[in-house]
Amino acid sequence: MPDEFARAESAAQFLLSQTSLRPRIGLVLGSGLGAFADELSEAKRVPYAQIPAFPHSTAVGHAGNMVIGKAGRISVAAMQGRVHLYEGYSPQEVAFPTRVLRRMGVRALILTNAAGGINLEYKQGALVVVTDHINLQGYNPLVGPNEERFGERFPDMTQAYWKPYRDIVLEEAGKLGKSAYQGVYAGLLGPSYETPAEIRYLRAIGADLVGMSTVPEVIAARHMGMRVLAISCVTNMAAGILDQPIHHAEVLETGERVKGDFVALLRAVLPRIAGDVGQD
Ligand code: HPA
User: Fold this and answer.
1) What's the predicted TM-score (pTM) here?
2) 211 CA → ligand 1 middle, Å
3) Are 166 and 131 in contact (CB under 8 A)?
4) Contact call for residues 209 and 181 (beta carbons, < 8 A)
5) How far is C-alpha 118 from the chain's CA centre?
6) Which residue of 102, 164, 169, 253 is most buried, as measured by CB atoms within 10 A?
7) Which CATH code for domain 82-276?
8) CA distance 129 to 124
């Protein structure tokens, strides 16, 4: 079997052969947040199942398409849906689409996710710019021999979430008259939601949000020197905060409710990130 680098390269070449666009910005659209990709122009939609070596999602709410298209003037490669560790994929498989985006020429990665709100200032539907993460998944996609063509053995994570991009989101949200929060994302394995005791623990160690994704992609992206922005949608308050159970349906409904705000924010942010990565 070809190595991971060769597989990422051939998936990237396959995707580039489907379009004349050459995006330098990649997006990963999480649970219920895939709407953004439906509005792209000149769009080429490729189901993950058709991309060589690409893992495909089984989670409800994850469409499983790579959509290469334009948001206004800006070319993007948008992933509608991702795979998760809790589905049984290896950390390397979960990180593989990020590898492919980089091999396609993507330099800035925008990740979105649904998350539980731990910080009591958040409300359901709040958009939160991730400032940092705490990896409690018990996995790291870089375990194993290091692939030097991707990056170095011990990548720095001090600015995993690129500060200038975070500032852009806060500014653009303000211009749109929306408040965006900032917070630390705790990545857990799932798939069960947390217990109230786990949420109290996560709050005590400095987490504002909890979710089951994003961390492997960010680690792989930083390994390859990509600049990362992550935005969480607080689809529910975390376990034990409200006197009610958490349902996946609620997570999807909240994603559906905020999608207008979310798409507007992404559209406002993209031209400024495009300027940073030299996208025309
Ligand atoms: N916990 C973990 N992951 C999540 C949650 C949650 O409460 N909501 C959406 N994704």
Assistant:
1) 0.95
2) 5
3) yes
4) no
5) 19
6) 169
7) 3.40.50.1580
8) 15
